Amino acid sequence: MRRSFTLLEILLTLVVLAIGLLGVISLLPPALTTADHVARSHEVCHQARVLQDALQAAALDPRVRLDAGGEVESLCLVLRHPAAEDELAFAADEQLFGSRACLLLPHGVDKVFSYPRGEVAAEIARANGQGTVALARDDRALSAEARSAGSSYSLPRADRAARVSFKLELQRAWVAGAARDDLYHVSLRFFVESADGERQPLQEFSSELYVPLPPRLPRSEGTWRVEELNAAADRLEQEAKRLAEGER
User: For 178, how many CA atoms within 13 A lie in the half-sphere containing its CB?
Assistant: First the structure.
């Protein structure tokens, strides 16, 4: 005759099973948190590569403002990313330095320029010195709290519960004790922002950005694309060659 389980044995089995299930359930929140952290880190690394590519592309075609003597008054990049796509039309006119697409470079000055410089055109233009680098705001003079709390742009795929945003900081690079006006140190910082607006540092990347200097042309005051200046310099060089050959 087969012996059946007693009520006590069944209760003990249920208690042991419940303890095991509670142990498994307790592991779920850390696992979910880890999975979220891994997914966010993957997205940040992807966006860092996207922004680095955008910087490299913008450095190939910078915008330059020349003074009456043909000297560089300011140099900026037109950075293409979703937060500035609707303002790229301003990239060739006088509204450039108040556009969210404008990344002003600290050309010729030992300052730190952040990006973004503000949320609205008037604030951005004021921080950019209306296109005059000497008058532009030096973010190195701001406190650490003010620099951390400054403007940032949200990533396009960030979720609502915890937005991920970024900001850039640029300054001239120094090589062998001398400042380089064609080489810049770039710090790319990512932040995570909770629903209540609290922002915490997430990840940081550093790199160097080479921006070829434009040729010096007399009587070329205004804002130009560097490729336009290169084309003008080539035309002047060819004209000079033709004149030299004609004098022979």
Answer: 4
The CA distance from 76 to 60, in Å, is 11
Q: Is residue 47 part of a domain?
A: yes
| 20 found inside a domain | no
Range of lowest pLDDT (16-25, 46-55, 111-120, 224-233): 224-233
**What is d(CA 194, CA 160) in angstroms, rounded to the nearest whole number?**
8
Q: What is the mean pLDDT of the chain?
A: 76
Phi-psi category of 222—alpha, beta or left, where left has phi over 0 and alpha has psi -120 to 50? Answer: left
Identify the sign of the CA torsion 34, 203, 120, 60. Answer: negative
Residue burial 112-148, b: 16+ Cβ < 10 Å; e: rest: bbbbbbbeeeeebbbbbbebebeebbebeeeeeeebe
Pull the structure tokens for residue 91.
Answer: 């990239």
Report the number of distinct structural domains present in the chain. 1
Range of the domain at 65: 31-247
pTM of the predicted model as reported, rounded to 2 decimal places: 0.71
Strand partners, 186: 170, 207
